[in-house]
Amino acid sequence: xxxxxxILFVGDLGDGDLRTVKAINKISIPTAVILGNxxxxxxxxxxxxxxxxxxLGEKDCxxxxxxxxxxxxxxxxxxxxxxxxxxxxxxxxKAAFGHISLDESVRRIVNAANxxxxxxxxxxxxxxxxTGLGSExxxxxxxxxxxxxxxxxxxxxxxxxxxxxKVRKVDLVVFGHMHHELKRGRGTRQTFYHDLRRRTAYxxxxxxxRRGIDALGDELCHFxxxxxxxxxxxxxxxxxxxxxxxxxxxxxxxxxx
Length: 257
Ligand SMILES: [Fe+2]
Known about the structure:
24% strand, binds fe (ii) ion
């Protein structure tokens, strides 16, 4: 069994289809979900989006600190349903949340981090990563589908992280959206960056597709895996598991030992 202490979902669960959300709801391990741009639903009324948020209940961490009984980490959600590219609110987002400005989004993220325990590692969970991590196609949040390649991160997230770092450490920022495999056969994306000065790690978990079959015909499923010890990040990797929960392949991104 994988048996993680916490499970984080980086979004793009199913284009408004509720089956994945309902499956996530059955997980008894502490779970945090941030919805992605593909979870906005096809209706401009925001009804599909609101129904997913409602179904997720406490597991949805949009702009808030997750509340678990005995948390081992603090998880703060960023702006949900982001498609990257600085700051943009879709019609569905406006319908579900109102006209949230960039400044308001920053205020919500920072306020959520402010009430997180100082004793626990702080993880920020986002659908798109922040700006400021490079503008190459292969950068961790770089635009690869259109020339020129530019930084396609979220501006409100970068500003939030910078503000939080003035008062405490942000241990890890986890996000998805920007697929690992680059368009036009240009290879793969950088998926991990460690800001050693501020001791903040950034992890892009968007392995697409997450399920596949290896050369022997075994089904594999990808998870990004992170471990903390004594409030310090000690390990980060991409892992492909077999159906029997054994690791078929591991790409180690960081290992303190
Ligand atoms: Fe996405």
